[in-house]
Design goal:
Aspartate Aminotransferase, domain 2; 20 helices; 39% helix; four-stranded antiparallel beta sheet; alpha/beta; 500 residues; 14% strand; Aspartate Aminotransferase, domain 1; 15 strands
Length: 500
């Protein structure tokens, strides 16, 4: 049997291991994933920490209980913590929440009656708009109040230079002015701020239709539905003719178009030149989520009016900071009304900024290594006996569209997806890579994408038909390629060949 550097990681271990601020969690068996989605107690009890937008961080649970005791809040209320007091106003107006208890804290607090539909709606909305209170903020607050004994040691930039250093770095790689860049507490919060601003701006112009182009990330689709009663989805990014026909009738009523380059999880790429020409013709702002390609691989300056990036992913690399950003392209008219966008934001916690400012210094080296590994891994996987199809940014279906956007001929996105000729559960369970949500990590990270992102579609006939219509296999394995030695990565895939 081939030796491997990759070892089994127990269910519930943080990814990265022993990091209290990790944003991913080990789910080594497919049944673990299914039981997590079904809320099976024995699995949830082992998962103490997971992606912060989807599961409340342990420190936030301790802090919520402390607030409950401090303000004598009745037991039938749930204490929900938010990033800022401004977020409290958003939720109060949206869900008619009236906190009768005066709570004076340097963060947002709302009180909701337990086990109600309202509570579930609010928690879902928090997930969509990504305004969670920082785990590092909670850590500092708990330590100050002697509720925990230690603060995790980590390398960070000095707080006096961190924010400026981070903004300067982003300014350099996006080739945009610092004043056009806005940091947000998460990538989804960046999308939320942009959508909210555009809705307010375009409403004055009677532009109320929001277009989603491609099968995009789950919560991007969810938040569009939440914000826009009139939203139009074009799943097939290869068919711009249908979009063009639609715009002939409705173009001047369209608020904005959002897409990903490439899409998640099928790594498709639209003909961006043609899409941009349609946007110019009908004066439609184009939002591009460039998280998966990164601005280091693709130059979007000629196309995007607004860039969005989840800095939690490739920019961080270590999966231990929740943060995002949006950038208003200085070449776009929209950059002249930046105050309309920036007024909806709240600044991430300083310690998160310090940590990311340190981690992002290796961004270019990280992307270069990941891109190089991806090219070699794709070459191997295409010949791998148990791999049915390899989805990647340079696949034949969209090779020309992606290629003309690349900064160099080595600018491959570090994300690929796989379908198999062998039983999916056997393949997933036998591979010893870290397995859990998120992407863009220094370490190779596997995710059973549909099971974790769209389990609700798996368990109903209509959902299965929607997946089939969009050529998304239920048994799809997403691979976020890491910076390990490529021979070791390939070796782990080879190791299980004789075990299947």
């Amino acid at each position: 049997m081939r030796k491997t550097i990759f070892k089994h990681i127990n269910l519930g271990e943080t990814l990265p291991i022993n990091n209290v601020h990790s944003v991913s969690v080990s789910m080594p068996k497919l049944q673990d994933v299914i039981d997590y989605e079904k809320l099976v107690p024995k699995v949830l009890d082992k998962i103490k920490s997971a992606y912060p937008r989807f599961m409340i961080h342990p420190y936030l649970k301790i802090l919520a209980n402390f607030i409950k005791d401090k303000y004598n809040i009745p037991n039938d209320y749930e204490v929900v913590l938010l990033n800022s007091k401004e977020d409290v106003q958003i939720f109060s107006k949206t869900y008619y929440i009236n906190n009768k208890i005066d709570i004076n804290e340097p963060f947002g607090v709302i009180l909701l009656i337990k086990d109600t539909c309202q509570l579930q709606k609010v928690l879902s909305f928090i997930q969509y708009i990504g305004c969670n209170l920082s785990s590092r903020f909670a850590e500092d607050y708990l330590y100050k109040n002697k509720l925990i004994n230690t603060i995790q040691k980590e390398i960070s930039l000095d707080k006096n230079i961190a924010k400026n250093s981070l903004l300067k770095y982003l300014s350099s790689i996006y080739e945009q002015k610092i004043e056009n860049i806005c940091l947000t507490p998460s990538g989804m919060n960046a999308i939320y701020c942009v959508l909210k601003a555009l809705k307010n701006i375009q409403r004055r112009n009677s532009r109320n239709i929001f277009i989603q182009f491609g099968w995009l990330y789950l919560d991007t689709m969810n938040i569009i539905k939440e914000f826009y009663n009139e939203n139009k989805i074009f799943y097939d990014i290869d068919n711009l003719d249908i979009l063009e026909d639609y715009l002939k009738q409705n173009g001047f009523n369209v608020c904005s178009i959002i897409t990903e380059i490439p899409t998640n999880p099928l790594l498709q790429c639209v003909d961006l030149e043609r899409l941009k020409q349609l946007c110019i013709k009908y004066n439609i702002p184009l939002i591009i989520d460039c998280t998966i390609s990164t601005p280091l691989n693709i130059d979007f300056k000629k196309y995007a009016d607004i860039y969005i990036e989840s800095l939690t992913k490739f920019a961080c690399g270590n999966a231990d900071v929740l943060m995002g950003c949006f950038i208003l392209n200085e070449n776009s008219k929209i950059s002249h009304i930046k105050n309309e966008f920036f007024k909806h934001t709240s600044l991430p916690y300083i310690r998160d900024i310090q940590r990311l400012a340190y981690e992002i210094q290796d961004y270019k080296v990280r992307i270069s290594q990941i891109s190089s590994n991806t090219v070699k891994l794709i070459k191997y996987l295409k010949k791998c006996s148990y791999v049915k199809k390899v989805y990647h940014c340079m696949q034949e279906e969209n090779k020309d569209n992606y290629k003309k956007l690349m900064r160099t001929n080595k600018s491959y996105s570090g994300l690929i997806s796989l379908s198999f000729t062998k039983d999916f559960k056997s393949v997933y369970d036998k591979l010893n890579f870290p397995k859990g949500p998120s992407l863009g990590t220094n370490f190779t990270l596997l995710m059973p994408y549909v099971y974790l992102a769209h389990y609700d579609l798996i368990i109903c006939k209509e959902g299965q038909e929607l997946l089939k219509m969009n050529n998304i296999p239920i048994d799809l394995l997403r691979v976020s390629v890491g910076t390990e030695n490529i021979d070791d990565i390939i070796g782990e895939f080879k190791r299980i060949e004789n075990l299947l």
